[in-house]
Amino acid sequence: MTGADAVADGQGAVRLLDRTRTAVNPQLRSTVETLPGSMRRVAMYHFGWEHADGTPAAEHPGKAIRPALVLAATRALGAEEAGAVKAAAAVELAHNFTLLHDDIVDEDVTRRHRPTAWTVFGVPDALIAGDAMSALALRMLAEDPHPASAAASARLAACIIELCAGQQADCAFERRAPREVSLDECLAMATAKTGALLGASCAIGALYAGAGDEEVAAMDAFGREAGLAFQLIDDLIGIWGDPERTGKPAGADLVAHKKSLPVVAALASGTPAGDELAELYARPVLDEAAVRAAADAVERAGGRDWAQGQAAERMGRAVEHLAQAVPDPAAAGDMLALAEFVTRRTR
Amino acid sequence: MTGADAVADGQGAVRLLDRTRTAVNPQLRSTVETLPGSMRRVAMYHFGWEHADGTPAAEHPGKAIRPALVLAATRALGAEEAGAVKAAAAVELAHNFTLLHDDIVDEDVTRRHRPTAWTVFGVPDALIAGDAMSALALRMLAEDPHPASAAASARLAACIIELCAGQQADCAFERRAPREVSLDECLAMATAKTGALLGASCAIGALYAGAGDEEVAAMDAFGREAGLAFQLIDDLIGIWGDPERTGKPAGADLVAHKKSLPVVAALASGTPAGDELAELYARPVLDEAAVRAAADAVERAGGRDWAQGQAAERMGRAVEHLAQAVPDPAAAGDMLALAEFVTRRTR
């Protein structure tokens, strides 16, 4: 199933992701297995392929959105996806390097329902394993004999720098008072942290299809805008929850005092509700009633409507960029299905 | 001055390093300045170009051994060094990424007579800046239009993985009892941690000169063997000091209970002096008399002679590999002068 069917169905994306994991995971895993010594152990654990003691584990795979975008972009531009499997694996490896280091920096203790690698192996080993995974991702591309591999390697390296900038900005925001972070800064951070790698995935897929500069740029813009739409919707779910999902409880981001996009929009609204929210965010602990009051204040300050409107606008722009890169709607169907999936409009 | 003169003089290497800094630093600095936000700040501080507050600093440059090897290898194989300046800068950037992360992992508080970056900017910002520097080094090579750039990028990425493996092994050794670390493991660790990047520097210079696989491999082997000779001599200085240098006090490595190569060789000697050393290393603190006794035990156990012999043997092998890659001694002179310099036989 491809094209418009996949979008209408929504199951299309799930099948695309399954297919991607089947195509990419053997390459990804065999590459990770080349890492020397305990770096291999840390990486195999992080990917969910091994337990902490090195025994085989049932896979808890990531969703494989990024490699799916690489392969779908290659197909959408008329090339065989088989030629881009290494590139897809490299992108997923780079993504997981950033997760491994983000968990250290953010001191997060859980990832994919398991203890994070640094809590199991210690910061030094997790840090060093992440360094090696980053270099391995870029090496995979640089060594790939495909004619687009050097350009793809440069693009992925540039994207890693942008991901670092996004993560650094995120950390810096945490240390600032809520109203010291502007909405523009917040949008720029979300673009760097979430949009950049989705954009690079689409761009690398396009490069592997032999696309020209304009198509590659349009593919990158599609991924970036879809990524920002995803972040906006994720932030909405972090406040109001998702009736169709049990993963993230309503209010979780408010309890954590997260400076998410709807929150920052509300704080910047200049409304009395924005002031109420600022007062609530100044409290060190928010009880259940305060969380409800904060969610209500975000809504009355216009943060919810703004985020929903922005998400729709970003998706609209994403679709326009996609049509520019891939004028045939049937050929663009898989890309669109994946974008709809990441923004959780379908499942 | 080139060739045999430089070796005889010893000042030749100093001049080569000065010339390298003049040729490479503008490229290196302008690339580092492209890093976004506070990652730029951290990197500029680490390189000694800025104070912690972002004001310009008098340079405390690294010795630039690695970029000097890149350029010397390119020249030795008959190409213009100007074409390899970006590659030389990329290697120095990669080297500094590893220093930045090593300081975090080893919790070192001083580097080049200044507080280390993580003590100034915190672990998160230093970690993220290092990630970006690694990607930037590989990006510089991948984006370089030189025909050898993709191969050089792949080689540098592979080398970064090996450096990570070396650093990880070093950390693991620290956690083990002195006699649980074998001499072979210790040599393999030193090769990965010190030899790999000196080898890659020579190999990348050769690639940029359009050399064939055999010359590239011989250049890599030259750098690796010279790197190991350097490490052995550095380890000797860490125990007995260097009458011609004031930098490292005699006994410093013994005070720190370092499992350096002469120490591990002595512990593995099966001699009574090796047992004496093991007894001394089991003490949590070594006073001045104990340090003298430990140095004496390493010597009587044969650790000093072994290390001196190994260093000479490694340098001999290095020279053989160099002659294979560059049969004309005059053309090989600068490479040899640099190798002699790093092993501190001349200054």
UniProtKB/TrEMBL annotation, chains A, B:
The record's section on PROSITE patterns has: POLYPRENYL_SYNTHASE_1
The record's InterPro entries line, in alphabetical order, gives:
Isoprenoid_synthase_dom_sf, Polyprenyl_synt, Polyprenyl_synt_CS
Instruction: Kindly list the residue ranges recorded as spanning the membrane.
Output: none
GO molecular function, a single term = transferase activity
Which keywords describe this protein according to UniProt?
Magnesium, Metal-binding, Transferase
Protein family (similarity comment): Belongs to the FPP/GGPP synthase family.
Which NCBIfam families does this chain map to?
f2_encap_cargo4
Its protein name is: Family 2 encapsulin nanocompartment cargo protein polyprenyl transferase
Lineage here is: Bacteria, Bacillati, Actinomycetota, Actinomycetes, Kitasatosporales
